[in-house]
Write the structure tokens for this entry.
Amino acid sequence: MPIYEYVCPKCKTRFEDIRSTSKADEEALCPECKTPSARGVSGFACRGTGSCGSGGGSCSSGSCSSCSGCH
């Protein structure tokens, strides 16, 4: 089963959950504060796009112009 990353809207905790793809978009409970949390965009999903974006992922080269604080 795939591992999905979630971000808590209340305490900003990032956590992972292993679940089937059919349940990937369902909210997961934050392990810290038990708030329902939406799925985030993992760094792995961002690699190879050439841009880090605002999610804090990694660019493939480490030198893209949008990476103000990536590396």
